[in-house]
Amino acid sequence: MHLYSKFKILDAQICELIEEDIPSIHILFENDEGLQMQGHFIHPAPPSPTEEDSSRPRDSELIMVAKALKNPTRPIIVAGDLNDVAWSRSTRLFMQISGLLDPRKGRGFYNTFHASYFFMRWPLDHLFHSPGFKVKRIKRLAKYGSDHFALLTELSYENANQQSLETKSAQHKQEEIQELAMSKADKRKVPRFEEQ
After folding, report:
1. What is the pLDDT of residue 128?
2. Is 61 exposed, middle or buried (0-12, 13-18, 19+ CB in 10 A)?
């Protein structure tokens, strides 16, 4: 996993939240106007015969990150190959718990996998953001040698006076799903980069 940024990175941590050798990158960065933001970049293992027997590790990582990002004090972007479609229960639960938004909503699917099979494609690569961002453009880029297409998402931050973001509490059944997903997860922490 690699991360390149044109913005100044103030703090960075590489974590193995659920499984060893499955890293995620968590950064605190500053935009050109001096606004500090959080970036969380995750790529959980897919549920497949060659990777994982079930989706539990993937789902646990998504829920762990979502819980850590509830009620943030800074703008947040989460991105990565989540090996999950936008309409799945785990992705919807991630959005509900974290309060983050999917910029594709109302704009299209932007299927990113599989680049070689035009008749079987799914949106597995995601970007989520906290309220306050404005979507300038989303574009699936041309095939470049991977089994995934790259997804270009250009955002601008419009809400410089953002207060702590409130999220809706999950319904009882969704809380049970969340607890089940977390029951097998390590008790490692996702960096929050609190304001000092």
Report:
1. 95
2. buried
Count CA atoms within 13 Å of residue 58 on its CB side.
Answer: 22
Domain spans, the chain: 8-183
Instruction: Outline where the chain has alpha helix (H).
Output: 56-68, 89-98, 172-183
Highest mean pLDDT among 48-52, 77-81, 149-153, 184-188: 77-81
CB-based contact 98:128 (threshold 8 Å) = yes
Give residue-wise pLDDT tens across range 13-43. 999 887 888 899 999 999 999 999 999 999 8
Give the contacts of 107 (CB within 8 A, at least 6 positions apart). Answer: 135, 138
Percent of the chain with pLDDT strictly greater than 70: 79
Q: Which residues contact 97 (CB under 8 A, 6 or more apart)?
A: 63, 66, 67, 70, 167, 170, 178
- Nearest residue to 59 (alpha-carbon basis) of 184, 164, 160, 169: 184
Q: What is the pLDDT of residues 89-148, one digit of tens each?
A: 888 999 999 999 999 888 878 877 777 888 988 877 889 999 999 999 999 888 888 887
The label of the residue with tokens 């990113």 reads 112
* The CATH fold of domain 8-183: Deoxyribonuclease I; Chain A (3.60.10)
